[in-house]
């Protein structure tokens, strides 16, 4: 996996992944930015959310669950001192579908947390307290 991050000006950077996709990162105005993109630490959090949601959805599809919508709500705490590393991250999965089996959803979240989500497991190995929860909502047309 490869990527390039290029400085634009002020606190703005363009990141390009090896897949060819780009993202704008920018800082707040009081730090020389123009607030036109996500912060680099937000990118880490979003990446973790994407990684774990990919795992959960993959497992739910394989178990033939009728998922209509799935999202993960992430909340993170950072250290007060520099470096302001993440100290705690909570991932709450909200899975919407028809007749979803709670055991399947719980298992998918657990396997993502313990075995498959590289980003989540990497954060834990760095000392971040990572917790997971889920809720299931019945889809109504």
Automatic annotation (TrEMBL):
Entry coiled-coil feature ranges: none
NCBIfam families: PRK10738.1
Cited PANTHER family: PROTEIN YHFA
Name of the protein this chain belongs to: OsmC family protein
């Amino acid at each position: 996996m490869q990527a390039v991050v290029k400085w634009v000006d002020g606190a703005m950077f363009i990141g390009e992944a090896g897949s060819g996709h780009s993202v704008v990162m920018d800082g707040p105005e009081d730090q020389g930015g123009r607030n036109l993109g996500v912060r680099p630490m937000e990118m880490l959090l979003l990446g973790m959310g994407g990684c774990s949601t990919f795992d959960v959805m993959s497992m739910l599809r394989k178990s033939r669950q009728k998922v209509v919508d799935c999202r993960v709500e992430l909340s993170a705490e950072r250290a007060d001192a520099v470096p302001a590393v993440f100290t705690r991250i909570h991932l709450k999965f909200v899975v919407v579908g028809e007749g979803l089996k709670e055991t399947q959803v719980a298992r998918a979240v657990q396997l993502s947390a313990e075995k498959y989500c590289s980003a989540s497991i990497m954060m834990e190995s760095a000392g971040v307290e990572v917790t997971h929860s889920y809720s299931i909502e019945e889809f109504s047309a």
